[in-house]
Design a protein that fits this description.
The protein is α/β, with parallel strands linked by helices and 306 residues long. It folds into two domains: 5-217, 3-Layer(aba) Sandwich (Rossmann fold), CATH 3.40.50; 225-287, Alpha-Beta Plaits (2-Layer Sandwich), CATH 3.30.70.100. Helix content is 33%, strand content 27%. The strands form three sheets. Strands 6-7-8-3-9-10 form a six-stranded mixed beta sheet, with helices on both faces. The chain has a four-stranded antiparallel beta sheet with strand order 2-1-4-5, with helices on one face. A four-stranded antiparallel beta sheet has the order 12-13-11-14. The longest helix has 18 residues, at 164-181. It binds adenosine-5'-triphosphate (ATP). Residues 14, 17, 19, 39-45, 205 line the site of adenosine-5'-triphosphate. GO terms for molecular function: ATP binding; ATP hydrolysis activity. It comes from Sulfobacillus harzensis. Residues 5-232 form the ABC transporter domain.
Length: 306
């Protein structure tokens, strides 16, 4: 299958600072890639290059078979999005800001109301952007990007600074954009749970390098599942679990966790606990979160580097 995005050996230096260090990955059309990793790892630098804002020091970006650099201009109508907070004229309304963009890009002005509707800003479209909340500006940023019906959408931390309700709205909006516009999306985010839900693959950035590209579920090998018991008395439950060969440890005052072992018969274990007079209030099966796997993965990488 033809690839939508091919990033090969991409590097960027600012003086002696290596912001990106030989980054490579490919994306098929319609894929959604989540860029994760610590602050300063190089995510925004990559996104700026994809948006034609920062020139690579070396390496290449190919979009739909055409090189983006050294002259990104011909491809810019196909690439939309923002890095950092989207910027608008604060004294103009949302609609006026988009109308200006439409004029500059020779897009029919009728598109403005379509995209405002799409991001649920039609009613606020007549208000000055200076009075918009942070979440409204993020949505206006997405509206601006959608105006040109991009084949590749770049979203830099669209969830940044949103409260839980707005976070959910943004998650739904990005999911809908992907489905309805069919674009390839590259999104950076520190909202790891959202990345896991929305993206079909992740790239883990660390110190300018990509340490992992692939499905979130396979980061660091097979995801670890655990069993959590809420049981009392804790010390007796722990003794019994140990006697049964279960590698359990307390996670707080009332709960015990053990990594799931396929050889266990959980019913027998629970029966043995009850037989020793342990009262079990809940037994839960829990998958380790992507966030904790990501932290463990990065820690391992640093141990390897040393
Ligand atoms: N214009 C610049 N001049 C000098 N150094 C820069 C410039 N832009 C980025 N850097 C440096 O490059 C590195 C990567 O920065 P980048 O903004 O890409 O990281 P990031 O992963 O997006 O971080 P965050 O999660 O905080 O947004 C950082 O060390 C940063 O200080």
């Amino acid at each position: 299958m033809a690839l939508a995005v091919e990033v090969r050996n991409l590097s960027k230096s600012y003086g002696r600072k290596q912001a990106l260090d030989h980054v490579s990955f490919v994306l098929p059309p319609g894929a959604m890639l989540g860029l994760v990793g610590p602050n300063g790892a190089g995510k925004s630098t990559l996104m700026r290059m994809l948006l034609g804002l920062v020139r690579p020091t070396s390496g290449s970006i190919v979009y739909n078979g055409r090189p983006l650099w050294p002259d990104p201009t011909p491809l810019m109508p196909a690439v939309g999005g923002f890095v950092d907070t989207p910027q608008f004229y604060p004294y103009l309304s949302g609609r006026e800001n988009l109308a200006l963009l439409a004029e500059m890009a020779s897009i029919p002005v009728s598109r403005v109301d379509e995209v405002l509707e799409y991001v649920h800003l039609r009613q606020d479209g007549a208000e000055r952007v200076g009075g918009y909340s942070h979440g409204m500006r993020q949505r206006l940023g997405i509206a601006a990007a959608l105006m040109k019906r991009p084949g590749l959408l770049i979203l830099d931390e669209p969830q940044d600074g949103l409260d839980p309700a707005r976070l959910k709205e943004m998650r739904q909006l990005v999911g809908a954009v992907r489905l309805e516009f069919g674009c390839t999306i590259i999104m950076s985010s520190h909202a790891i749970a959202d990345v896991e839900r929305l993206c079909d693959r992740i790239a883990v950035f660390d110190q300018g390098r990509v340490r992992y590209v692939g499905p979130a579920s396979q980061l660091g090998g097979t995801p670890i599942e655990a069993i959590v018991w809420e049981a009392r008395p804790m010390d007796r439950a722990l003794d019994e679990l140990q006697a049964l060969g279960v590698n359990a440890h307390p996670i707080d005052e009332g709960r015990i966790l053990a990594p799931l072992d396929a050889r266990w018969d959980l019913a027998d274990i629970n029966a043995a606990l009850i037989g020793r007079g342990v009262r079990i209030f809940t037994v839960m099966r829990r998958a380790e979160s992507l966030e904790s796997r990501l932290l463990a993965y990065l820690e391992d990488q640093h141990v390897d580097v040393r």
